[in-house]
Amino acid sequence: MTDGIDPLSEEPRVVYKRIGNTEWQMREANLDVHDEISLWPENPRLKAVLNGGVPDEIEQEESLRGSPGYDGLRASIEKIGQMEPIYVKATSTGQYITLEGNTRVAVFRELDRKHQSGKLEGHFRRIRAWVVPTDFRERDIRILLAGIHVGGPGVRGWGRYIDAEFVYETVTGATGKPPVMNQAELASSIGKSESWVTRHKTAYEFAMKFVEHADGEDNPRKLAAENYSILEEISKARIIGSQLRDYKNRSNDNLREEVFEMVRNDVFKEYRDARFLKEFHDDADAWDQLKSGEKHIANQLARQVQSKHSSPKAKIADLPKLISRTFERGEDVFGDDDVAQLQQAIEIIEDQVHKDVHPYRLAIKKASRTLNKASRADVLDLSDHDLKEFREAHDYFIGLVEAHRSGSSGGRV
Questions:
Q1: Quick one: how far is CA 147 from the chain centroid?
Q2: DSSP class of 129
Q3: What is residue 382's DSSP assignment?
Q4: How many C-beta atoms surround the C-beta of residue 219 within 10 A?
Q5: Distance CA 283, CA 339 (A)
Q6: Tens digits of per-residue pLDDT, 229-254?
Q7: In 3D, which of 50, 266, 32 has the Cα closest to residue 129?
Q8: pLDDT band, residue 34 (cuts 50/70/90)
Q9: Edge-to-edge strand ranges of the sheet holding 96-100
Q10: Among 87, 118, 248, 393, whose Cα sits 20 to 30 Å from the Cα of 102?
Q11: What is the DSSP string of 12-58?
């Protein structure tokens, strides 16, 4: 293999790799993918698709071949070879366990079986690896994997479910294992905020409640992984999300069961549909439709909600609250031009609502309602100039009425 080390002609090379805050000395090796390397069943990507138990190598390879990105990686390696070494650790049996690079090992094994003759025969038998020291512990493995797959730019992402599982097990502990580090330490090691860690931990806890609910499925963990984006969105839905996450309050159990059944029945076409869970729950008819289990019905209902929210009528209804919040925040962003524009909008609506009514009649009615609501404080607040201006306008108007209506109406003004 052109990108590896010929074990017969070259001495093993020593490399220094900084992982977290520690610089480690590692030995580079060229290992037989069939005889010298074992896949690591605790690999986060494998755990997401395996259904518990202790899988053998064949089961692990099959699971990796079905993982997202596998086919693309295989095509790349077959065409241009291995780009990055894998990380392995020596075991007491003399074998090496793959800490990072399990998918690449599976690809090499498949390609080696494929090319039993021809110019690529033996080309994929060995893989380049960095052998970590014997004192490379669980914490160090976690920091290594986080740096490659979770934190920072250009990472080879596992996907949100696997990221969340990794975060959760790191800070709370996997089954039968204690936590590896606290939230602050993990956040620091991957260059993320503690709130980022908390969000992933919280969403994964919710997904595990779904796993418990879907216990009758063939592989509930795989089902949770496939629906994780939807479950995550549900867990943080406005108001109802906090109710669903209140696991100690038994009154929420039925609601949670209903929502989990919706997920099992595939009523959500995409995670964005779950953003309207509060609106769905407030509408008894919509909630009944979701409980019916009709596939992707939430997507249809979400479009209806969006249409209502984006209509001019909905925007007008939101204006008073929006303006009030602006003033409450101490922002002084409105002026006379804004008042004029709002008044213009009101006049347009009034013209349509009262098509057969002259605008001046509406103005008179509005002025009458204003005067009838006047209080003592309102009167005392007026200046002499305001009253003088009003009296002059009133006398002018009454003069017009008496001049033009006295003969036709016969009534008193």
A1: 21
A2: E
A3: S
A4: 15
A5: 36
A6: 999 999 999 999 999 999 999 999 99
A7: 32
A8: very high
A9: 14-19, 22-32, 126-131, 86-90, 96-100, 37-38
A10: 118
A11: PPEEEEEETTEEEEEEEEEEETTTTEE--TT-HHHHHHS-SS---HH
